[in-house]
Write a structure and sequence with these properties.
The chain is mainly β. It has no helices and 14 strands. It has one domain.
Length: 106
């Protein structure tokens, strides 16, 4: 089980998928929030199946699938691929990495 903090509000996931797009937050296939505005800060504690977001995100855990961020992303190891419009900082990546900024893999 993991927690997601978006602009100070906390949500819970069972390690499923998270999608933040078009000002909606979708966790495990359910819309849990809408009408995000201003600077959106996303921090996830725990492991995830996948992440897709229009904004930058930090995952303090691993991702078993793909990561797709229009901004920058920071995470543990990724079993899939990582695509980011900004920089990427993560652990080992099994798939490819495409970034609009710098890439740092440990």
């Amino acid at each position: 089980m993991g927690t997601i903090n978006i602009n100070g509000k906390t949500y819970v996931t069972n390690g499923g998928s998270i999608c933040i797009t078009d000002n909606y937050v979708i966790i495990d296939g359910k819309v849990v929030s809408e009408k995000l505005s201003g600077i959106v800060k996303v921090v996830i504690e725990g492991d995830l199946a996948s992440l897709k977001t229009d904004v930058s995100a930090t995952v303090n855990g691993d991702v078993t699938g793909n990561v797709n961020c229009n901004g920058s992303c920071t995470c543990g190891k990724v079993e899939g691929s990582v695509k980011a419009g900004g920089s990427v900082t993560c652990g080992k990546v099994k798939g490819g990495v495409h970034a609009g900024g710098s890439v740092s893999i440990s």
